[in-house]
Amino acid sequence: MKQQEIHIPLCEKCSLESGSIFKYLSPDELVTLNYEKDFRKYVRGDILYQEGNRISGFFCIHSGIIKVFKTGFDGKEQIIRFAKKGEIIAYRSVLSNELACTSAKVIEDCQVCFIPSEILISFIKTNSTFALELIKLACHELGEANSFITDIAQKTVRERLAEILLLLINDFGIDQEQNLQISLTREELANIVGTATESVIRLLSEFKSDRLVELNGRRIKILNKKGLEKISNVFN
């Protein structure tokens, strides 16, 4: 049987197409990145790294979707974010030289590039533009985390679920039939919102009765985006 050919993406092409942070590297640095990276494929359910472990590099996503999460004392996941094409994960543990503070799991088959820690550090030391953009990225993610903490403290579960659906629309889009272009289990939705799975199931049923969404297994069809915005108070 003929072995399937593996096409390893070129960083210069990928960074321009996805708008990743590597677009701020010089041509010579991109050559180094292409040479030093390790191209990997994962399927849904695979773990890239686990909280509490020491990791020797970070990941850039070429395709697919990865959830980044923390695990509570009771074993329940709290999803921090989803990473998609062009985004990087685990870089903060590399910068701080600390154990991984999150775990990462594949929810849609993906292709990623693993980049050794010393490569990132060398780029930061020699490329001030890249270093500044990396700082901006870290600050942006910190801002999102602060907003999430505020939402947990001040918004109802109904408001948070509506806001999460809007964020998923913004991050992943909807297809021609108005379906969210990310497929999540009810448990995964609950782990983003920060509530029990039963609460999400009940609220989605209410959203369906109110003609805000339609449900087909994991697929969620958006019927009334304005209605979700009103519930979420996201623009108030």
What does this entry look like structurally?
- The protein is globular and about 55 Å long.
- The chain folds into two domains: 11-152, Jelly Rolls, CATH 2.60.120.10; 156-232, Winged helix-like DNA-binding domain superfamily/Winged helix DNA-binding domain (Arc Repressor Mutant, subunit A).
- The longest helix is centred in the middle third of the chain and has 27 residues, at 128-154.
- Strands 1, 2, 3, 4, 5 and 6 form a six-stranded antiparallel beta sheet that branches.
- A hairpin with a 2-residue loop joins β7 and β8.
- The protein starts with 10 loop residues before the first helix and ends with a helix.
- It is built from nine helices and eight strands.
- The chain has 236 residues and is of the alpha+beta class.
- Helix content is 45%, strand content 23%.
- It has helices at 11-18, 27-36, 91-96, 117-126, 128-154, 157-172, 186-193, 197-209, 225-232, and strands at residues 38-42, 47-49, 57-71, 77-83, 88-89, 103-116, 213-216, 219-222.
- α6 (157-172) crosses α7 (186-193), α6 (157-172) crosses α9 and α7 crosses α8 (197-209).
